[in-house]
Amino acid sequence: MPYPNSKQKCVLVLGDPLEWRIEVKMARVYGDNNRPDDTGVKDILSPFAVDRSALADCLELVALGGDARRAILIYGFDAPQRAVAKLIAAFEILATPA
């Protein structure tokens, strides 16, 4: 399902009629070369739409409106001194409406 004014589409839509809109993001704190991937934090926490982060996806999901439920699914793998749970906790703080 496309987002308004965007080339991006929602990753997963469920139900007929529509019940869920779900975005899926990987929290990648280490790259294929077994070195820290500092862009992994940006991919989850950046507020800028151009970065296509999980946080920016929240804004896209809200902009769709409608009655469907919305969710962000973040998955990843822990690495030494880089627990994915900490990144997800930071996301939850930023994504919670004030």
Rough outline: elongated
User: How many independent structural domains?
Assistant: 1
Structure class: alpha+beta
Strand segment count: 3
Helicity, as a percent range:
25-40%
Beta-strand proportion: 15-25%
Largest sheet: 3 strands, mixed
Query: N-to-C SSE series?
Result: EEHHEH
What descriptors fit this protein?
single chain, 98 residues, alpha+beta, three-stranded mixed sheet, 3 helices, 3 strands, elongated
Quick summary of this structure?
With 98 residues, the chain is α+β, with helices and mostly antiparallel strands. The protein has helices at residues 39-45, 54-64, 84-95, and strands at residues 12-14, 20-27, 69-76.
Describe the overall structure.
- The chain is α+β, with helices and mostly antiparallel strands and 98 residues long.
- It has one domain.
- The chain has 3 helices and 3 strands.
- It has a 3-stranded mixed beta sheet.
- Strand 1 and strand 2 (20-27) form a beta hairpin.
- The longest helix is centred in the last third of the chain and has 12 residues, at 84-95.
- It starts with 11 loop residues before the first strand and ends with a helix.
- 19% of the residues are buried.
